[in-house]
Structures are given as C-alpha cells and as structure tokens.
C-alpha cells in the first residue's frame, strides 16, 4: 500500500508535490491541480480595462487596486468585453470533473502498515522542521492578484509560467493596437510573470489581444487574419489562463469568434466545431452559445452544398464538407439546444425558433407527399409541446403555429382556439412571472450587475416559496440562468444544489451540477463536501471519490479563502473513510486506509492553521475532525486510542464547558455497558463510572478560567450523587462549597475589572442616530424609527436596491394580508388609448419605465386598437406619464389621460351577480374598460366590486344608480375614493339589532318571534341551529325601529324563559377582536319550518360523509357561495362550504348517487373563466390559493363583537354578509377526520352505483 497516496499533496513526506502523471504534459489536458481557484475579489480597472467589467462577483465587494498603470483607450475603436468572467479551461473543460490531479496506483496492504505510516509521519515532520527554519514568517494577504504560490512554500505554478525565470520584456507592437494598448499589454505581461495566478491580469490580457485581432480583421487586413502580429501570443495567453481559470459564456464566445475567423481548411473548421461542443457541455444553459453553434454549422453546410456559397472553398474542401457537415447533424444540434434551454422563459425562443424553422424548411424540401405528411405531423406535435411550456413569446409561437397549420391545409382558427383552451394555465404561469422577468430584463439591459443579482435572488425566493407540483423545471432553469450570469457566486450554487437534493428529481443529474459548481467556485468547501457526499450516496468507486478530494485540496486555495472551507472538505472525506471502514463488506485494509487518511487530514489542517494564524493557533474550536477520529477508534474497538485523542484536546480546550460536557457524556456512554445487572455480574459490585468522574474533576480544576463554571459544578455534584460511593458524594458536597466560593470571587473580580474599564473609557459622542446605549433617540428621528420598526430586514446575501429605501413588504409576493397603505388606483393610473393591436405588456412597461415603477397593466382590445390601464406606485409618476403622449408609441399617435374619477365603487348588489351581470347593469352609461372583484380569501362576506369606465363623465353618469332598487336591494354606486371611510349603516349600526343568549336548546324560531314580537315589528330573526335541530343557545332579533329594540332589552333581559334566565342586549360591533370569515357555508338539509313541524324526522342521507362529498377545485377566489350554489343546485346539494384560501369548495350531497352524478357532470366544466376539476377534501386542502400578479387587495380590518358570558359568542345568519349578522359565532369543533380518512372513490364506482349496483358500493364504503 502506498501511504503517500492517502496524504494530501502538501503533506506527502516523500516530496512536496507528487510526481505528475505522464499524460499531464499533453496540451489538450492541462493539469487541474495547477489551476488556481478564484476567491471573490474585485479590482478597479484602468485604461483599456475600464471597458472590461469582468468581476466574477457582485460590485459591492471591496475593490482591489489594479496591478497595471492607467492608460486611455486612444483613438482606435476597441470592442468592450461583457461582465461574465472566464469560467473554465478552453482546451479540456472536462478534465477536472472526475480525474484527480495526481492519480495514484494503490498497492495492497502489508503487515508493516503501521510501521510505514509512522515512518512517513516522522519523515514528514523532519521536512517540516527543516522548512520552518528557512520559511518567511509573514505572508502576503490573499487575493487573485497577490496570491502565494503554495501553502508550503513550494510552487504550484511551475508549468504555467509565462516564460523564463528572468523574462525579458516582450514586444507587443501591432498595427491593430495603439501605443497605449501596447504599453498596457506590457504591464499586464510583467504582472503575470510576477504572479501567474492574477485572475484579472489574465482576463484583461486575453481580452485585449482578442480585441486587437477583431480590429485587425475588420480594419487592417480583412482577408488575412493570420497576419495578426500577436496571434501566437493570443493563443499562448489563452492556453496559460486555461490551466487555472475556465472561461464562461463570454470568453467562450470570444475564443470561438477568433477561431472561426482563423479557420482556413476543413480540419480547422472541424476543430472549431469540437470547441463548440465543449462549450455547450461547459455551459449547457447558454442560449447564446447554442445559437452561435447552430449558425456556424449552418454556414459550413451552406458552403459545402449551395451553388452560390457565402464563402468560397476549394472543390476538395467542399467534397469533404458534404461528407462531414450534413442537415441531420444540424438538426440534431438545434434539437439539443432547444431541449437544453426550453424552460428558460426569456431566451429559450432564440434557440427554438431556429429549430422549428429548420424543420419547416426541411419539410418543404421533402421528396414525397407521405414524407411531407409525416414531417408535418411531427412538427405539429412539437408546436403543441412548445405551447405547453411557458415562455415570453408564447403569443408569437401561437401565431406561427396557426400559420403552419394553414400552410399544411388545416383549420388555423380551430387549432388556435384549441391551443388556447388547453394552455390557459400555461399563460397564467408566465403572467405570474412576467413582472420578475421584466425587472430582470431591465437590469440586464442597463448593465447593472447589483440590480440584476437582486432581481434574480428575489425571483428565486418567490419561485421556491410558491413552488407547485409542476414548477420544478422552471425553478431549476432559473437557477441555471442565475449561475450562468453569476458563475462564481457560491451561494447561488449552494442554493441550487440544496434545491436539487430537496426535490430528488431524477431528470437532473446532481453530480453534473456539482461538478460545474466546484469548477466555478473551487474555493467553496461546502460545494466540494456536497460533491463527496453525493458520490458516496451513489456508491461510486473509492478511487473516484479520492480523486475528487485531492482535486479539491491540491491547489491550496480552500484554506486561502477560509480555513473553515478546508475543514468542511476534510470532514466529508474523513466521514466517508470511517463509514467505508465499517461497512458490512469492509476489509481490514479499509480500516487501515481510514486510519491513515484521518491522521493525514488532521495533520494537514493543523499545519495550514499554524502557517495561516501562527504557531499558537488553538485548532478547530469544534474539534470536528478529532471527533470523527474518536468515533473511528471506538467503532474499531479501541477506546484507549480514542481516549488519547480526547486527552490531546485537553490542553487547547480545557476552558470550554462544552468540551468537558462532551468528554463526560462520551465516557458515560462507554460505562453504560456496565450499568445494569445481568448474569455476567451477578453477586458482584457494579462498576462505578470512575473515568467519567475523573473527567469532571479535571474540569473542576479549571474553575478560574472556564467559560461556564456554574453548570459544570452542578453536573459534577449530580453525577456523584447518582453514580458514586457515599465517600465520593460527601467529598463532592465539600468541593461544591469551595467551588462556589471560587466562582463568586471570580465574578466579583470580573465585575470590578469591567467597572474600571468603563470608568477609563472616553465618553462616546452622541449622535442623532443612537445614544450610548444603542437606543435610537426621539425627536428628529421619530419618523425614521417608526419606519424602521415596520421594515423587514433584508435576508443574508440580498442587496437593497436603494440604501435609504424603507421596505414595508416582503420581497416576494405573498398571499397574506398587507398592512401597508391602501392602494390608490384612482390617482395612480392612466388610461392609454389608440395603441396598436400588436402591443404587449412588456412593451408598455418599457415605454413607461422612465416615468416610474409600473405596478400593473390591464389591456382591453378595441375594434382596431388596444386600450391599456397603467398603474404606477405614486400619483406623481402618473402625472409624469401624461407627458409621454407627445412622444407617441412606435410611430402611432396615442391618447393618455388620468384614470381619476373613472372608477365606480359598487356594493350591495345581488349575491348571485357576476361580471356579466354588473356589465349589463352599467353598460348603458358608457364604455366599461374593466371590472374588478375582490378576493374572498380573507373575508367571504365581501360583496363589492370596481367598475372602470373609459372616461370620468360615464362614471359620474353611472352614479345615478346609487340608491336605486335592484332585486329588492338598494345598490351603492359611488366614485371610488380609497381614502374615504365608509359610513356605518345597517341594523347593528342603527341599534335595531338585539343579541339574545342563554336560550333553551329546544326552543324554536317560532317561539322567539312570539316572545319578542310584543315589543314591535320584527324585521328578521336568526337562530343558528345544529344538524339535530337544536339551537346553539344564542340568536339575533332585528327590529324595524331602534325604540322597539330598546323596549325588548328592557322587557326581556333577566326574564325566565323556558327555564333559563335570558340575557338580552343591543348588538354592537367591535372591530378589534372578531376575525374575518375565511370560509362560508350554505345548508340545504331541511328548512327550519319543516324541522319545527316534524321535529322527530330522521335524516335521509345515505353513505358516509366522505362518500357523498366532492371538492370543486380551480374555483376563482372572487366567486362567492351563492354563485357556487347556482352551479350545484340541479344535483340536490345538502351543504356547500366555500374555501377561497384553497381555491375551491366542498359540496356535500344527500346521497352517494347525487355526488357521483355531480362529479361526472361538473368535471372540466367552464366556470367563471376556469375549467373545474373535481377531487376530494384532502385535494382541496393540499391546494394553495391563487396569486395574482400585480394585484394585492388589503386584508380587511377585523370586525369584532363582545364575547358572550359563560363561553358563548356572537353568531348570526350564514352567508348573508349584512352588518351585525354572521360574525363571531361560538366556536364549535368541526370533525373533518371523516372526510380526510375515507378513501376516494373512482368514476367507475359512481357509474356502478348509478346503474343500480348499490350493494357493491356499500361494500366498498365498508
């Protein structure tokens, strides 16, 4: 066995760097062990580099000075680089995935294993001592510009130097470069000779040379790119960088652009295609690379096959090209690209459009009609599949689909109608995300990296929070987009990995994602740890896992970023070795390997820690690797070795109560085997836990310095009382008194020292923000303080868009009620008319983006134009938007006017009224742009809506209906004013409602009417009842006059009524206690009159409650129970329970047959613009309420009533929504277990019952 193979490269006692593999010198396989790993620095560019925004992380990181000097760009035009940094090696992007930097040939274990291990350790210690004598005490701080060559003093960059040890200045003169650029390259070259690991110098060096080549091709010598004087330097620079830093999307495109221009023959062009293949493997979610790949292959295809090719080739090259570059190959490239990015909502169409166009052109070239027909069927299916995926250009895809159907002789209108009906939910999916996509697009186009990162993280947070059953591909694609744009943000990669682990979706290869993550962020110990653990979970080979561990630790940059990152990797590695050593199939060699590997990890961490923090470094404060070592020895049956590890930790952790506690518990666990009497120790004295007692006594000796002495004293005394002899217990009592005195004296000294330090501390000047105690002062900052209390802090890793901005709401849309200021659409909206019919919401948002934040856009088609209602966040932004009228919209004259006084607040209309009813009622007064119903999720009693007219005159005219009678109700129709308070009205507000409680449960509504009718004319009586016909002990009586209600209180309060002392009072609303109703119920079992006439009538329902109940799913949360009642009434319902928070309702029927008929009839029915789905109660509860993009109704204030005496509460009529009735019923437990526990029946069961096979149905119910 090779002992050195278990040690990290830095720890090998044979040599500082293990011998390289023979294949390592191959130019196509650069050593991944030599690649430096990026941290997250930033630098201030100068000169030409000012055009290069290649920081691999967010700009709010502290910037570092440029290694070069300041230069200007001169007079020549130089293309600017984008902000995506290089991410992977150019020649071999897959090298670092599964191949360790230094493969080892493992020999068989021998009996001299321990001797070899000791010898290796001794030799290593000797070399360490020799190295320390000549090492430099201080090391420079870590950055990508000033990076030490090796943690152990050796060089990890031997094979990446730019030249000789003492290089001479090279000449970078070229016709394409101005003198300033030549001097800038000279400075970068010098910087790279001094520090070959300087990431930014590599980026600027390669980018400047690339820009020079492009300028040479475009302006100096267009026909001969090979004449570029620095071509060899460019290729050398790219190769040197590839050994350490892999290119990302942008530098891949740069390199491919250069190689395409330089390709002179078929072999060169095939090499370019191979590079494209590597680029797509490296960045599979990059739509730009896939499009460039397909276009280049299409160009090669045209040059090989067309009579008039875009580029002149020799006949020999054309002949070879016709063999190599085929339409089948191009089709496969477009198919792969479309599949890879299909869930990218914003950019997937860029690839898919090329793919579908290629297929349609190929169909048109078909030789036979049958072949053409087959291809048409395939293309049709591809269109339908695409329409079933949300994307930004869904409408354009639908138009192309209709054109294609028309092209092949089909019915385009029917196809479009069918596609729209089948994919309504797909359009809604994108609508919910449209605002996030727009914010992201705006930040990307503006080049604002901070805003783009904030928009992405906010988008991801919302996606995870609202994730549904079918959302996984969209969330995963969004993570891919995020890591493509910010490839060195390790937090994004960790979030992505954790998301995939949580979801366990087999469609995504977790290991492939982890490979890319560790290549892009190789300093992240968390990512390497996840990769090792995932390999172990998938039962990969030991050599493969060992290679990944060596790849992680070989460069030395884990500890440069943070020693904690190195420890994370070693924990994963040592944990794997320990678990492998004691697997059921393990051998003795596996245990020996684990022992040496754990020792090696401990030595490495100790050595790195001492070099990083000095010889007095106390070690890992949590001693995690040591605990793995202890567990290893214990599992191997050698507790004495484990105890030696504990004792070795005492010196550095003796002042930690946590350490003594863990050590004590460990000893007690070992002693537990001897704590019980059995046949083996019968007649003998049980062993006392003397070793555990000794541990606590050692801890007690540290009372002067230990961090928590009090709990240690208590633990020691308790231990002695539980487990030791009487002599030890007595000694512990004495020791306790002594220890407590020691602790008291210590605390007194600490308090005195703190007081003395406070007395000598200079007085801190007070500021307006805070006083010395940290409390904010009143006065000027009172408003700021109030705002701060309402502000939810930003989560870690997220940036505020404006430093002084006070955020009053969650970053992600929420279904909970808002406590913010009321939404004022009337003063913050404008109406835009005469827009072209092709306009989209995105275009409207972009048009008004400079006016302010567009909160919502509602569009309405007209005869030959579109009308849009655009809502802003403030009235000032709406005022500014009016000035955009003069500019016009895409060459069209438009009209913009304020939305003020155009919206009508309508209430007290019939409960069954829907949008069509409201429109019919108000259409005579003018053109209606929209109607808005409130969500009932927070209060099912809401019965109002908003009707917006095209102009204010029509809205004012419509107020004529205010107070008019509509089906027996006085309708309310007023100009909407969010700041106006509603005037209280109704029986409760007028004092005409009487609340009665302590009723005899047998009393009926008729007796109540007779008893209270003597005081005046009664408007209505409400006595809530139970299913058995008994009342709930309270009720309401509403009189027509307030005087009659007062007389009823005076005459009936305290009176004996059916053996009970009646309590009567005037009903009052108390808004601070009563909760809004989140569900409503309509019962239709037996009318009150029938129940009074036949009190003994038995229930005629059949089957269990679960069998005869169905759940309506996908019901809009604006639909009330009365409209649901109208839907199910033909089937004979018994009870309707509306639950808007879950987007549906539970319908209970009289019989199982009725439920079966209703299920079959209602499945897939169009209801209020939705297709109903039928399920069971558990399906409804599992369903989340809908979220509407751009709308956020405020949760209503709670209306509360006084609590009744003796546990009774106020109650009222169900589902009527009138003041004073229906709030605050007494709490009665509802038994929903039956509905949840009964197994759901299939449609076949219901059909069998409908055919008369009731016996089988009853058997199933049992």
TrEMBL record:
GO CC, alphabetical: U6 snRNP
Alphabetized Gene3D superfamilies for the sequence: 3.30.70.330, Tetratricopeptide repeat domain
Transmembrane feature ranges: none
Protein name per its UniProtKB record: U4/U6 snRNA-associated-splicing factor PRP24
Known function: Functions as a recycling factor of the spliceosome, a machinery that forms on each precursor-messenger RNA (pre-mRNA) and catalyzes the removal of introns. Chaperones the re-annealing of U4 and U6 snRNAs (small nuclear RNAs) released from previous rounds of splicing, an initial step in reforming the U4/U6-U5 tri-snRNP (small nuclear ribonucleoprotein) that can reassemble into another spliceosome complex; this step involves binding U6 and facilitating the unwinding of the U6 internal stem loop, followed by base-pairing of U6 to U4.
Polar residues bias locations: 1-15, 23-34, 41-85, 140-151
Biased composition (Basic and acidic residues): 88-97, 778-795
Chain residue ranges for the region called Disordered: 1-102, 127-151, 754-826, 1074-1106, 1216-1244
GO molecular function (one): RNA binding
Biological processes, Gene Ontology terms: mRNA processing; RNA splicing
């Amino acid at each position: 066995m090779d002992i050195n193979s278990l040690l990290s490269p830095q720890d090998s006692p044979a040599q500082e760097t293990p011998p390289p593999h023979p294949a390592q010198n191959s130019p196509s396989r650069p050593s991944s062990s030599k690649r430096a790993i990026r941290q997250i620095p930033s630098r201030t560019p100068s000169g030409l580099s000012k055009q290069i925004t290649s920081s691999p992380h967010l700009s709010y990181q502290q910037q570092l000075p440029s290694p070069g000097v300041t230069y200007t760009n001169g007079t020549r035009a130089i293309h600017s680089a984008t902000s995506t940094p290089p991410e992977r090696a150019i020649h071999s992007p897959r090298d670092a995935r599964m191949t360790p930097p230094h493969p080892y040939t493992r020999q068989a274990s021998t009996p001299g294993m321990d001797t070899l291990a000791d010898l290796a350790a001794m030799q290593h210690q000797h070399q360490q001592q020799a190295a320390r004598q000549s090492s430099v005490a201080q090391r420079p701080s870590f950055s990508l510009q000033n990076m030490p060559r090796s943690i152990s003093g050796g060089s990890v960059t031997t094979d990446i130097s730019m030249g000789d040890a003492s290089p001479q200045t090279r000449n970078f003169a070229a016709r394409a470069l101005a003198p300033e650029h030549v001097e800038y390259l000279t400075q970068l070259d010098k910087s790279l000779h001094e520090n070959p690991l300087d990431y930014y110098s590599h980026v600027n060096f390669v980018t400047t040379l690339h820009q020079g080549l492009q300028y040479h091709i475009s302006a100096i010598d267009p026909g001969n790119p090979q004449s570029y004087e620095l071509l060899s330097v460019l290729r050398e620079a790219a190769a040197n960088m590839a050994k350490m830093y892999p290119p990302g999307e942008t530098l891949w495109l740069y390199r491919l652009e250069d190689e395409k221009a330089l390709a002179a023959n078929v072999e060169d062009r095939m090499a370019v295609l191979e590079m494209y293949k590597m680029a797509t493997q490296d960045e599979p979610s990059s739509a730009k690379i896939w499009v460039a790949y397909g276009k280049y292959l299409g160009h090669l295809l045209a040059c090989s096959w067309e009579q008039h090719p875009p580029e002149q080739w020799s006949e020999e090259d054309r002949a070879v090209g016709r063999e190599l570059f085929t339409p089948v190959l191009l089709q496969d490239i477009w198919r792969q690209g479309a599949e890879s990015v299909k869930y990218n909502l914003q950019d997937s169409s860029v690839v898919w459009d090329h793919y579908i166009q290629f297929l349609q052109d190929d169909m048109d070239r078909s030789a036979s009609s049958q072949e053409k027909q087959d291809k048409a069927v395939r293309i049709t299916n591809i269109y339908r599949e695409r329409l079933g995926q949300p994307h930004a250009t869904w409408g354009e895809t639908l138009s192309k689909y209709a054109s294609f159907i028309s092209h092949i002789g089909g019915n385009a209108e029917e196809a479009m109608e069918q596609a729209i009906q089948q994919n309504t939910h797909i359009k809604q999916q994108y609508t919910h995300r449209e605002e996030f996509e727009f914010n992201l697009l705006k930040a990307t186009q503006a080049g604002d990296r901070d805003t783009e990162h904030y928009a992405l993280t906010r988008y991801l947070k919302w996606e995870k929070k609202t994730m549904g059953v079918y959302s996984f591909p969209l969330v995963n694609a969004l993570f891919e987009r995020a890591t493509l744009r910010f490839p060195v943000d390790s937090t994004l990669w960790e979030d992505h990995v954790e998301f995939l682990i949580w979801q366990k979706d087999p469609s995504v290869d977790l290991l492939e994602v982890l490979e890319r993550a560790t290549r892009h962020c190789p300093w992240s110990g968390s990512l390497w740890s996840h990769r090792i653990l995932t390999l172990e979970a998938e039962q990969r080979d030991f050599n493969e896992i060992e290679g990944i561990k060596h790849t992680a630790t070989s460069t030395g940059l884990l500890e440069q970023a943070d020693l904690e990152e190195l420890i994370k990797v070693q924990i994963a590695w040592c944990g794997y070795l320990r678990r492998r050593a004691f697997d059921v199939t393990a051998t003795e060699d596996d245990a020996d390997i684990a022992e040496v590997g754990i020792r090696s990890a401990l030595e490495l961490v100790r050595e790195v820690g001492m070099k990083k923090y000095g010889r007095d470094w106390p070690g890992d404060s949590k001693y995690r690797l040591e605990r793995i070592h202890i567990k290893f020895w214990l599992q191997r049956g050698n507790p004495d070795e484990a105890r030696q590890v504990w004792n070795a930790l005492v010196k550095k952790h003796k002042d930690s109560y946590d350490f003594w506690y863990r050590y004590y518990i460990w000893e007690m666990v070992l002693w537990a085997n001897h704590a019980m009497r059995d046949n083996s120790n019968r007649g003998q004295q049980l062993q006392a836990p003397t070793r555990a007692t000794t541990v606590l006594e050692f801890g007690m000796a540290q009372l002067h310095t230990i961090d928590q002495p009090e709990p240690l004293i208590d633990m020691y005394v308790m231990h002695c009382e539980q487990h030791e002899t009487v002599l030890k217990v007595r000694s512990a009592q004495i020791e306790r008194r002594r220890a407590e005195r020691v602790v008291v004296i210590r605390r007194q000294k600490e308090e005195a020292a703190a007081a003395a330090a406070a007395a000598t501390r200079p007085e801190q000047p007070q500021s307006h923000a805070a006083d010395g105690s940290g409390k904010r002062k009143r006065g000027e900052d009172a408003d700021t303080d109030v705002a701060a209390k309402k502000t939810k802090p930003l989560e870690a890793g997220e940036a505020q868009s404006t430093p002084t901005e006070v955020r009053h709401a969650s970053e992600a849309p929420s279904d909970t009620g808002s406590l913010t200021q009321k939404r004022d659409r009337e003063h913050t909206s404008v109406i835009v008319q005469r827009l072209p019919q092709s306009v989209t919401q995105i275009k409207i948002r972009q048009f008004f983006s400079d006016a302010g934040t567009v909160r919502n856009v509602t569009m309405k088609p007209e005869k030959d134009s579109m009308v849009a209602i655009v809502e802003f966040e403030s009235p000032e932004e709406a005022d500014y938007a009016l000035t955009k009228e003069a500019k016009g919209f895409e060459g069209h004259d438009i009209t913009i006017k304020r939305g003020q006084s155009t919206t009508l607040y309508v209430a007290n209309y019939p409960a069954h009224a829907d949008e069509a009813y409201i429109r019919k009622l108000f259409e005579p007064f003018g053109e209606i742009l929209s109607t808005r119903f409130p969500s009932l999720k927070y209060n099912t009693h809401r019965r109002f809506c908003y009707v917006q007219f095209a102009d204010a005159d029509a809205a004012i005219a419509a107020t004529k209906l205010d107070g008019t009678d509509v089906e027996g109700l006085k309708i309310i129709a007023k100009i909407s004013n969010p700041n106006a308070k509603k005037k209280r009205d109704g029986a409760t507000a007028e004092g005409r409602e009487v609340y009665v409680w302590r009723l005899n449960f047998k009393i009926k509504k008729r007796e109540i009417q007779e008893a209270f009718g003597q005081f005046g004319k009664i408007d209505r009586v409400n006595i809530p009842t139970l299913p058995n016909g008994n009342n709930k002990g309270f009720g309401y009586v509403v009189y027509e006059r307030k005087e009659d209600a007062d007389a009823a209180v005076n005459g009936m309060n305290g009176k004996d009524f059916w053996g009970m002392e009646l309590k009567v009072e005037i009903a009052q609303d108390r808004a601070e206690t009563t909760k809004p109703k989140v569900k409503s119920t309509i019962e239709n079992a037996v009318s009150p009159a029938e129940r009074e006439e036949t009190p003994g009538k038995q229930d005629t329902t059949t089957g269990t409650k679960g069998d005869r109940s169905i759940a309506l799913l996908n019901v809009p949360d604006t639909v009330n129970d009365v409209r649901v009642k109208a839907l199910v009434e033909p089937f004979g319902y018994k009870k309707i329970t509306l639950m808007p928070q879950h987007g549906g309702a539970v319908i209970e029927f009289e019989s199982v047959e009725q439920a079966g008929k209703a299920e079959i009839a209602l499945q897939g029915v169009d209801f209020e613009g939705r297709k109903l789905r039928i399920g069971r109660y558990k399906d409804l509860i599992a369903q989340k309420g809908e979220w509407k993009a751009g709308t956020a109704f405020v949760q209503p204030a709670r209306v509360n009533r006084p609590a009744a005496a003796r546990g009774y509460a106020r109650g009222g009529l169900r589902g009527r929504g009138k003041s004073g009735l229906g709030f605050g019923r007494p709490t009665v437990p509802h038994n929903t277990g039956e509905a949840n526990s009964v197994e759901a029946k299939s449609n076949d069961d219901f059909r069998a019952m409908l055919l008369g096979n009731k016996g089988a149905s009853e058997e199933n119910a049992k």
